[in-house]
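Sat 14:20. Reprocessing the chain from the morning session after the first attempt stalled halfway. Input below, unchanged.
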Amino acid sequence: MEVKAVRLDDFAAPNGPYEAPFFLKLDTHGHEVPILEGAENVLAKASLVVIEVYCYQLTPTSLLFDEMVAYMRAKGFGVVDMSDPLWRPQDKCFWQIDLYFEPLTMPYLQKNTYV
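Finished this time. C-alpha cells:
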C-alpha cells in the first residue's frame, strides 16, 4: 500500500495561518523525529506539544523517553506534565507515557526552585 506523506509545515502553510495558542499531539509509535523535523514552523508557534514516549526501542531510529526529553529541550521545550502511563502486561515494566511540553520561555520553566 502506498500512502502519501506531507510535512506538517507544508500542510499548515496553505491551510493556516496557525497562531498560538494551539497544541500538537503526536502518537506515532516511534516516528516522532521525522515528523518534528518537518514541523519546524508549526513547532515554533505551538503552545503545547504532547508526545507519546517509550522506554523501549520501537523502531531503529525512535528516541527513548530520556532522549525525547533532551531532543525537545534542544528544540526549546520543557516537560510540564504527563499522563496515561502504560505498563507491559506480561512483566509490568513501564512501557510508555504521554509527556506534555511547553516552550522554555514560559516563566515557570525558568524557575529552578521547588517553592
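The beta strands are 23-26, 48-54, 77-87, 94-103.
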